[in-house]
Design brief:
Elements: E1 9-12, H1 18-35, E2 38-41, E3 66-68, H2 71-79, E4 83-84, E5 97-100, E6 105-108, E7 127-130, H3 138-143, H4 150-160, E8 168-172, H5 181-188, E9 196-201, H6 204-213, E10 219-221, H7 242-257, E11 262-264, E12 267-268, E13 275-276, H8 279-289, H9 291-297, H10 303-309, H11 319-347
Parallel strand pairs: 1-2, 1-7, 2-3, 4-7, 8-9, 8-11, 9-10
Antiparallel strand pairs: 5-6, 12-13
Amino acid sequence: MQLDTAKRYLLSRPHGGFNDTFVQLEKSALYAEKFGRVLILDMSRSGLGAQLDTLFDGSFDVGPELLVWDADIAQACDKAESVYPDFVKNRLSSYSVVVKFKPIRLVEKISGETLNFDHSCDHDAQLLVYEQFGGGSASFRALKRLRLRADVANAIVARLLPLGRGYDAVHIRHSDYKTQFHRFLVRLRPLLHKRRVLICSDSVAAKSAAQKILHRSTSVMSVADIPDIGRRALHQAKELDAYDRNLDLLCDLFGMALSDQLFFTQVIAKESGRRLYSGFSLLAELLRRNKEVVRQLLANADQEAVEALFAPSPQVPGLYRRLQLWGQRQARRRMEKRTEKRFNRAERDQPLAPESIGPR
């Protein structure tokens, strides 16, 4: 196989966790669409650890043609004579990358050069290569282009249906990023009194703490059986089966998206000590606010089961519940002061330039 000389291509290899992966996917999709390139997508190096078509159907609405990386495409790319950056020419199937800091980025191992290019303009090379990580809210736009495969969507629905309706959710990321989850759970204790609560976390310790700290009247639930992987992020646990790991992650994401209220707190970056919000938390909240996108992602599932999943939450009467809802709104308002601009920006349908999505 050889690349078609009448076409131009972009080989995109996203890295990072689930949110970063789909942010980089959207960046590459926008660039390919804008400059008329065929998008060659290699997700095997991403946090998914698998190609896109293992989870999503073939209806990816990218504009130009989409090719999923395989052995034949790898062979064709290795033969390409017009490649940028040119230091990976003739070895696109074999080069490796490492992380460099200050600024944090991916570089090709032998040359030490960054696998990136100026996304604000077109380039002469027939084949462009992009391999980076970087977060943001563009992952939400990427998911709006997709639908899950029927088997994946039905597996998620089957796992979420037993939750019923009328529950809250808490997301705690405590692996490569740290969270002061004990303090966070203590603050949530009165707000979740007599509530059914879905705990979503990549930390066995955080899930165990929720059982102990939340009030005994709180019913603690889980839809993902994530083993103890220490201080690594879930996407770094390559010893786990990729399909099972991704299904757990998606069940947590959709479980949070279907909750009545979602609570999350800031994480602490390991290298810099900077406080920030997990991109996965913010993506879950965007989906919770835009449930039509959740429906679209589940379009290939059994629709009778999906309707049950989206049934209205039961009303809980009483003065105490009204006071509790007031407390929940106050807690969420404090959180949203720091995140509202990001939500508004992500939810807008205004055109987004590929160069505006990180990394620059």
